[in-house]
Amino acid sequence: MPAKNTKTTKTFPHSMLKEIFEQPDVIKNIIDEYINKKRKEAVFNDPDKILKKLKKINRIIILGCGTSFHAGLAGKYMFSEYLGVEAEIELADEFIARKIKTDSKTLVITISQSGKTADIIKAVRLVRKQKSFILGITNGINSPLDKLSNFICFCQAGEEKALAATKTYTSQILLFALITLYFGKLQKKITPTLRVKIINEIIRLPKKINQILKQNVNLQIVADKYYKLDDLLVLGKNYQYVSALEAGLKLKETTYMHAESFALGEFLHGPVAISDKKHPCLIFAPTGKNYKEAKKMIKKLKKLKKKTIVITTQGNRQLIKIADKIIYTPKTLNLFNPILSIIPIQILAYHIAVLKGINPDKPRNLNKCVI
Ligand code: BG6
Questions:
Q1: What's the mean per-residue pLDDT of the chain?
Q2: Of 19, 61, 81, 284, which shows the fewest CB atoms inside 10 Å?
Q3: What are the sequence ranges of the domains in the chain?
């Protein structure tokens, strides 16, 4: 199905901000395209029932680069949590370098915003030769990935002009959730009650994203406070580790800030040594699963006299006295925290770039797509 256009009519000074604001529409496009609202299930336009043949698959490898790799990591965690399947995940270039063998029973899920990135296409050509099944997730209609995949899911995001991937990232994560639901139903691993709960939450996502977008002016004020920072440590656990990785990349790409991401627990195995007043920490701490550990870390960092910026759930007042700055996002299911938590960071990265005099649409040394 061709990707739809997004409807935003407001004018924006840069494509990046426009594309961040298009996210509710992109999510709605995906809902329209891939959800049967009556039956509350994920549907893929699969006339040949290709996806059903995947029952024979005994190995799953996820491939991506940059932001797309991070979306793939969220997908890996979803497969593990909901399907009990441990998928492998590889950066496309490392996959090529390690000459990883696959076969006809391997499903290779390949994610690329552009569908053109050279590493991805080279990896896809290799697995095609090994007769593996390729499921592509891309925004690139008629891209090489589209043409080389056995089955394709489009991000429905419209053109993304700014260098930094924003709307395509959140759409890739949502597509992964829908693929998880589809396989979950096929393999009877997700109960109808759970499926309906997840679908209902997806339907609520555009509204929740709009609530975050309303914080744009506040986030501009936060950006004004922090834009001179040279270094930032970014921490998160489980799905929030995905957000930490993506936040680090988004800040590096658009603001040139040295933002270094760590898995929350891993931070204590070495990196904590660089803890000083100079290096503030951005911590993803939505309530629910893994919140306790994040809160413990925020307390520990306070003892170390480090400044903390925390992303947590609306209504959570427990961190007011221990965090230096709190950014709130609406409550959601854990698997959708990587969608909601990253949006304030996309907005922050945008404003920091502008305050530093960087064109957020075309930061230095980077290409939208490396071909
Ligand atoms: C890089 C871009 O070159 O390619 C990143 O700078 C992007 O922003 C990465 O995430 C992967 O691109 P794609 O199109 O394969 O998702």
A1: 93
A2: 81
A3: 15-208, 215-355
